[in-house]
Amino acid sequence: MASTYRGSCLCGEVIFEAGNFSKEAAACHCTMCRKFHGAAFGTLVTVSHFNWLSGVQLLGNYKADNGTVRTFCKKCGSSLGFRSEGGEFEVAIACFDEDIPVKIDAHIYTANKACWVEPDDSVPNHVAGRP
Fold first, then answer.
1. End-to-end CA gap in the chain
2. φ, ψ for residue 88 (rounded to 5)?
3. Mean local confidence (pLDDT), 71-76
4. With a threshold of 0.85, does the pTM exceed it?
5. Do the domain assignments include residue 87?
């Protein structure tokens, strides 16, 4: 198996390891990602290897009306992951504790972008999801 990388929440009580990163990693500008991450966009990547190492009892899940599930730490509120209905788990890139071999390759849902940010034009920008 390829290398694994550790990540954690803000309070450090939830710790995970992940590896086998997808080559696609987008900055999502949808309203739900902006609100969940408290930022201009959420950056997530799908992994085929994922394991919670500690703090499982502190995990909370929010299921939105559209069936997506967002995972967070109930103690500190850190946004940790996302799963679309029937989809794979995506990890919030900013929660890794070390550099990971991932580069943002697209901006998605830019039709919903914050008025105070302009997506990077060096990668494709999509008004909705990936085509």
1. 30
2. -85, 160
3. 98
4. yes
5. yes
CATH (domain of 27): 2.170.150.70
Residue 94: φ, ψ to 5°: -65, -10
pLDDT at 7: 98
Lookup: tokens for 52: 């919670």
Q: Which amino acid appears at position 2 of this protein?
A: A
State whether the Cα torsion 122-124-127-128 is positive or negative: negative
Quote the number of domains for the chain: 1
Establish if 35 belongs to a structural domain.
yes
Count, residues in the chain: 131
Residue 105 belongs to some domain of the structure: yes
| Whole-number Å distance between alpha carbons of 102 and 62 | 26
Query: What domain range is 33 assigned to?
Result: 4-112
